[in-house]
Every structure is written in C-alpha cells, then in structure tokens.
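[Discussion] Sanity-checking designs against the backbone

I'm trying to build intuition for which residues belong where. Below is a structure token string of 550 positions. I'd appreciate it if someone posts a full sequence so I can compare it with mine line by line.
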C-alpha cells in the first residue's frame, strides 16, 4: 500500500509527482500500475469466485486473510533478506511467486478444479510473494531517490495504486461478469509478467558494504532490537496494527454487502471498490496539502474517524450510491493512514535496517488485517452483517482515541546516512570472529555538568545498544569522581566494525554534545581490549588481552 523543498528545512517535496523525474523509479512505478490492474482484477475474481462456490460468510472474509497472513509470518525474514541481498532480485522473486499463483488459478479454473481450500491456498501463495515484494520495493525507494523525495515517493506509490483501484475493480467486475474468472486470472498473469520484465531491465546502484553479509539469525535479531528501541517505529506499528484490525471489515465484508445487503452482482461490487479507490486517489493527490495544514497525528486520527463513518454507513444503507460515497470517504482515510505510518517508519530508520523495520511493521499490520478479517467474518456469520460493520465502526473510534497514548510525531529531517569509518590500528592480529571485544571510553565531567551528562548518556545508551552494543554500563571513579567510563561489548571484531559503520550523522551529533561537557584537554579516550577466558589453556593462535587506541 504508501514532496522537492529545501532539504534542510522540510522533508516534504512541493509536489507529489517529483519522484517521477527519476527514470528508474518512473519505469518501475508505471509497470507497477499495470500489475496493480491485474492484482485488483484477480482480487475481485477470487472474492466473487469464493462467494459463488461457498455459502460460508467466513470463507469469503478469509480471502483477505489468506493474502495478508503470509506477511505476518514471513515479513521479518523477508526484510532481513532485503537488507542483506539485492533488493531488486528479492522484488523479482516475489513477483514470480505472485505470477505463479495467478497462472495456477487460471489453469485450475480452466479445467473446473476449484474448491474453497484451493482458492485460499493459492491466495496464500500470492500473499507470500507480496510479503517478499513489499519490504524490498519500499526499502528500495531510498536507494533510488534522494531522501527528501522519499515521502513523495511513498505517497505516489499509494496514489498510483489507489488511482488504479478507482478503475480496476469495476473493470475486474465487468471482466468476471462478461467472461468469467478465467479471463481475469489470465490478464492478471500477463500484467505480472510485464512488471517482471521491467524489474529485470531496470537496475540501480547501492553502495556496497565493506563488511561480510550478516547471518540471517543475526540480521533478524538486530532488526528486532533496533525496532524495539525506537519509540517512533513502535508507535507506528501499534497504530497500524489496530487500524488494520478495525478497518479491514470495509474490504473483507464488501462482497457480502454487494451480494446480500444490496442484492447486486460483481459489477456492483466493482463499482463499490471503485468508490473506495476514488476516495483514496483524491486523498493521495491532496496529501501534501493536508500534511502542510494538519499535523500527522491529527490526520491519522481524522482518517480513523472517516473509516468509522464509512463502516457505519455500509451497515445502514441499502443504496448503491450512498454506499459508494461512503466508501470514497473510507478510501481517503485508508490512504492517509497507511501513507503517514509508512513514511514515519522510513524516516525513523537508517538505510542498513530499513528493510527490516518496514518488514516488522508490515508483519504486525498484516497480522492485524488477517485477525480482523477472521473476526468480522465470524461476527457476520454468527450474528449479522450490519452488526459486524457497526462493531467495526465502534472499534475505529477507539483506534482514533489511541493517539493520546501512542502519538505519531511530526516527520522531521535527520541525517540517517552512515558515516565513513576507518578501522583503528591494533597491535595484535585479529580475525573477523575474534572476540568478545570490550570498548571503554573515558570522560572527564565536572560536578556542574553531571546532570546534563547523565541525560545525554541515557540517549547514548539507546543509540549504542540499537546498533549492536551489548552490556552497556556507565561507571564513576570512586577515587577521581570527575572520571566517568562508558563500557560496552560486541561479540566479535566484525560486530565492532559493523556497529561503527551503522552510526549515522544524527547519532554523531550526540558525540558533539558530550564533547562540550568533557573538560579534559584531550578528547574522550577510547580503549579497546579483547576478553579471554582463563578456565582452559590458551591455543597458540588465540589472541591475548590487549589495549590500544584508534
């Protein structure tokens, strides 16, 4: 789902369409719109196919869950892959899975071999492709474009998809009604092949890392640790999960609204989806103006209220026109929320970990969407459709109120690019896996600066820990109280180098503030040593403890 002013003044580009000046982004974005037509036609075909072959309301709602649940299980793994391997190749592999699922659906429908479990299984396979594609594509935006264009690019991705959403579902409904699901699946497969060709042709440069690739378990652990220590990312994850849980009823139950409440067919369902897409498109186009007028938190709160009004209207109206207008309001709330949260995660993440933070964000919101699809489908089946939609509206109002506890901070420009780091010279010969490495940094802080120093060191602990520091401590010398020692460890020498390569210019500003509090004529002294256990005899090639200064 997803602004060029002075970079030092505002991270917002003056126009949503500025990223299209980049030929690589433009080519992939255009090809993505073509594939989005196919995806939406496929979505309409699958949902209507399930509504015709199954009498279970829960099975219809589970179509949404089957395409989003894979992201809950696979996104963290996919994000680690996107940060450690070529993101372009990860995108290519993900779209291959989606194309395979669509082709298999077309083949099975052609021979008449379809049942609810086969449909859900192939929807799940397509969802696996999305789980790999989305983090890689969104993380690649920062590789292809300058940072100041990232918010505009994320908005443009969402605008493009929702522009297609305003036409694609209606077209899908027409294709299904006129030619059957087989034609929709065949056209979807062709659209995916067009995108695969574009990805294969377009290439962009990513600065190579001087360090070896991280093991997958370490990469996942580091991504989870960074996310857990970022209040901005945690707030976006929590709000996105709750919003997805509450708002997915609008899309998950829409086939039932068309079939049961309006007594209409696939064309009406396509018109309703088009109403949703039209509202989303309009909100996307005006997103830059909205962000300059209202704070990001106020926008997301109003978006939740808009979706609540949409859900309540669908529960009460028997009119196709009123339902389509309500869905336009819901679509606007949908795109404002997801765009704001997505950009919040991107701007809070350095390049080395952005694939993983985005994937964790997608995992939780996909889990919320999948759980919401099951919840509202169950309520609709056991009680009534109106009861499910009305309950969803109440839940969305509660989500709007969570802004008091989990506010989304206004986007701010910060330099998240890594700094150049040269490994310090050491006397002993170290191997990449030599360790553990102990780092000690000495400061001289007068009594008048102690409170300010402790406040900065609380931030220092967070910064160092989220890039890989272990067992961080701060000690004060009992015999010379003005001497303070910061100590932390890394498991290996490579981990120590990786920690320093991950620090950004924004993180280094903290060093400058600490230097202002430090009163010695010399800068804070850094001492490196390697731990060695004493419980067994030392092998000849095992390094001995040492101290050195970079």
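Best answer:
Here's mine. Compare freely.
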């Amino acid at each position: 789902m997803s602004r060029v002013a002075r970079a030092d003044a505002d991270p917002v580009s003056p126009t949503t369409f500025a990223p299209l000046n980049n030929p690589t982004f433009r080519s992939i974005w255009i090809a993505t719109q073509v594939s989005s037509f196919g995806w939406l036609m496929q979505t309409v075909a699958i949902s209507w196919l399930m509504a015709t072959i199954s009498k279970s309301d829960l099975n219809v709602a589970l179509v949404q869950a089957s395409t989003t649940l894979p992201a809950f299980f696979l996104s963290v793994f996919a994000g680690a892959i996107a940060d450690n391997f070529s993101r372009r190749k990860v995108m290519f592999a993900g779209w291959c899975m989606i194309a395979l699922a669509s082709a298999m659906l077309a083949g099975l429908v052609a021979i008449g071999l379809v049942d609810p479990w086969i449909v859900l299984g192939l929807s799940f396979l397509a969802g696996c492709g999305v789980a790999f594609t989305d983090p890689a594509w969104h993380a690649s935006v920062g590789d292809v474009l300058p940072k100041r264009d990232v918010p505009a690019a994320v908005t443009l991705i969402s605008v493009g998809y929702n522009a297609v959403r305003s036409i694609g579902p209606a077209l899908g409904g027409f294709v299904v009604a006129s030619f059957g699901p087989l034609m929709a699946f065949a056209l979807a497969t062709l659209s995916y092949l067009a995108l695969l060709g574009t990805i294969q042709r377009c290439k962009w440069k990513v600065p190579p890392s001087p360090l070896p690739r991280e093991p997958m378990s370490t990469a996942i652990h580091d991504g989870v640790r960074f996310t857990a220590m970022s209040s901005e990312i945690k707030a976006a994850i929590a709000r996105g999960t709750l919003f997805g849980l509450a708002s997915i009823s609008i899309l998950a139950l829409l086939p039932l609204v068309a079939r049961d409440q309006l007594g209409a067919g696939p064309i009406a369902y396509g018109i309703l989806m088009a109403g949703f897409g039209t509202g989303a498109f309009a909100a996307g186009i005006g997103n830059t103006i909205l962000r300059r007028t209202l704070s990001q938190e106020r926008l997301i709160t109003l978006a939740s209220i808009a979706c609540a009004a949409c859900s309540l209207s669908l529960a009460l109206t028997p009119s196709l026109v009123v339902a389509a207008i309500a869905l336009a309001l819901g679509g606007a709330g949908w795109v404002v929320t997801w765009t704001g949260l997505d950009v919040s995660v991107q701007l809070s993440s350095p390049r080395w970990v952005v694939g993983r933070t985005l994937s964790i964000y997608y995992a939780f919101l996909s889990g919320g969407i999948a759980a919401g699809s099951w919840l509202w489908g169950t309520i609709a089946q056991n009680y009534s459709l109106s009861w499910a939609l009305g309950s969803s509206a109440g839940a969305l109002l509660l989500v709007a109120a969570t802004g008091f506890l989990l506010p989304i901070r206004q986007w701010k420009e910060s330099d998240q690019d890594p700094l150049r780091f040269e490994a310090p010279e050491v006397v002993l010969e170290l191997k990449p896996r030599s360790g553990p490495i102990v780092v000690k940094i000495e400061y001289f802080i007068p009594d008048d600066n102690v409170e300010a120093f402790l406040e900065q060191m609380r931030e220092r602990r967070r910064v160092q820990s989220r890039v890989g520091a272990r067992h961080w401590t701060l000690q004060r010398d009992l015999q010379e109280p003005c001497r303070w020692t910061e100590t932390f460890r890394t498991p290996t020498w490579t981990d120590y180098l990786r920690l320093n390569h991950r620090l950004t210019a924004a993180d280094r500003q903290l060093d400058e503030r600490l230097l202002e509090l430090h009163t010695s004529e010399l800068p804070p002294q850094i001492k490196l040593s390697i731990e060695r256990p004493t419980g067994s005899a030392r092998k000849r090639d095992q390094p001995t403890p040492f101290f050195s200064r970079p």
